[in-house]
Amino acid sequence: xxxxxxxxxxxxxxxxxxxxxxxxxxxxxxxxxxxxxxxxxxxxxxxxxxxxxxxxxxxxxxxxxxxxxxxxxxxxxxxxxxx
Amino acid sequence: xxxxxxxxxxxxxxxxxxxxxxxxxxxxxxxxxxxxxxxxxxxxxxxxxxxxxxxxxxxxxxxxxxxxxxxxxxxxxxxxxxxxxxxxxxxxxxxxxxxxxxxxxxxxxxxxxxxxxxxxxxxxxxxxxxxxxxxxxxxxxxxxxxxxxxxxxxxxxxxxxxxxxxxxxxxxxxxxxxxxxxxxxxxxxxxxxxxxxxxxxxxxxxxxxxxxxxxxxxxxxxxxxxxxxxxxxxxxxxxxxxxxxxxxxxxxxxxxxxxxxxxxxxxxxxxxxxxxxxxxxxxxxxxxxxxxxxxxxxxxxxxxxxxxxxx
Lengths: 83, 311
What we know:
The complex is a heterodimer of chains A (83) and B (311).
Chain A: H1 8-17, E1 21-22, E2 27-29, E3 32-34, E4 37-40, E5 52-53, H2 56-82
Antiparallel strand pairs in A: 1-3, 3-4, 4-5
Chain B: H1 12-38, H2 47-61, H3 75-88, H4 98-112, H5 121-132, H6 144-164, E1 170-171, H7 173-190, H8 193-200, H9 207-225, H10 235-241, H11 243-266, H12 269-280, H13 293-300
Helix pairs in contact in B: 1-3, 1-5, 1-6, 1-9, 1-11, 2-3, 3-4, 5-11, 6-9, 7-9, 7-11, 9-12, 10-11, 11-12
Organism (chain B): Kribbella pratensis
Region (Disordered) (chain B): 280-311
Protein name (chain B): DUF222 domain-containing protein
């Protein structure tokens, strides 16, 4: 690990320990919140590429997407509770 | 070049597949809204107002305003956007009917000089009835199906937008397995010999591309649907939980019947190929391991999900 890279293996460990949070439940790889910033792997990168931190603009967009994902999860929980 | 060094293509395939899933759930949501509207007794004075309120309630709750549904997208998407605009318009005291939303979608297309939506609600109803046959069994509560389908639509749109942001996305093995199982179960029931024969005629050179995109579609579809599957799901159970599956398979069969004509006449090669990809989906999936109920529940259980950043 360097200051601005995280291997996929390391990210899996962080997710397993709860130190990192995936944007979308059920994702093995995807935007992930860790150490007060968003990390992601660019689409064009190799399959085993490291995570890199998102720049401020992308972080802002990831924040908005996370809020939408949370809204979906809240409604899903409500619907599950109905059954 | 070693596999480790090989760069992947940009995410166009994933993005196209993700958009197809959004389109699919938009159609399902429209059908659910239609069912809600039709459930009122004939002549009910507050039908339009209550229909608008119900759509607005779930729309806002799911943050669907940020979902960027395409006002120039599929017919169903255009009608759904028009319906949402009516429902959310604070100056619209009258409410919402799908007839009015369809008319507005047509008007907008005409004013913008676009091809006008050709699909009416009646067409969607017919497709739905054809897809289900006599096995339809939908949620009992009035707005349950509407809420479920809009939730799937919202989830699919988030996934699409994450991909559009240029972020690599890979789902877990249980979800991949659930996707493959879901589609295989459906195909087993609905496929017929004619379609099978036609699939065998698919040019060999196109199969790798089919395989890649079919897997993408399958993966994204299952994630968006969040279908709860058992190790040996019954088809009826799957249909009950995700009516869009039936629509998808019906559409696939129809597209394959159109395939020969489409390539030769109506569609350009790219469009024809895209339609074909949908249909070839089930022919190219690997045999997955069985999916357990525990796998699926783990993904849906909010207690297993980290709360996410609170920013």
